[in-house]
Amino acid sequence: MTAIEREDNMLQTVLHLDDVSFGYNRGLVFSRVGLSLEKGDFAAIIGSNGTGKSTLIKLILGLLLPSGGKIMLFGKNRTEYSGYGQIGYLAQGQAYTCLLYTPPSPREY
User: Fold this and answer.
1) Confidence grade of residue 107 (pLDDT, cut at 50, 70, 90)
2) What's the CATH class of domain 3-108?
3) Is 93 within 8 Å of 49 (Cβ atoms)?
4) Mean pLDDT of all residues in the chain?
5) Residue 5: helix, strand or coil by DSSP?
6) Spatial separation of the C-alpha atoms in residues 44 and 17, rounded to whole Å
7) DSSP output for 30-89
8) Which of 6, 12, 15, 45 is buried deepest, with most CB atoms within 10 A?
């Protein structure tokens, strides 16, 4: 594998949110959120209570449907994605601080 092929492999987009919006009956939680994580990235979602952290994770995991925008996992629309074994979710404590993790491939060790 050449250096360019290795670089292309490392730059795989794992998660992409494009203008994602969501609201419950009581109103809009967030609007037009954008985010992109590449293979090997670590991300922590932090914030005050009620700011939408858990809601965002539930959208990414397919437990909720966005009212607008698009969520892509490994280049596929979230509704078509079936490889949830490739990502991890860790809720910590009552604040539900969340972490998305993609394990490195054997070649990356």
Assistant:
1) low
2) alpha beta
3) no
4) 79
5) helix
6) 15
7) EEEEEEEEETT--EEE--STTSSHHHHHHHHTTSS--SEEEEEETTEETTT---GGG-EE
8) 15
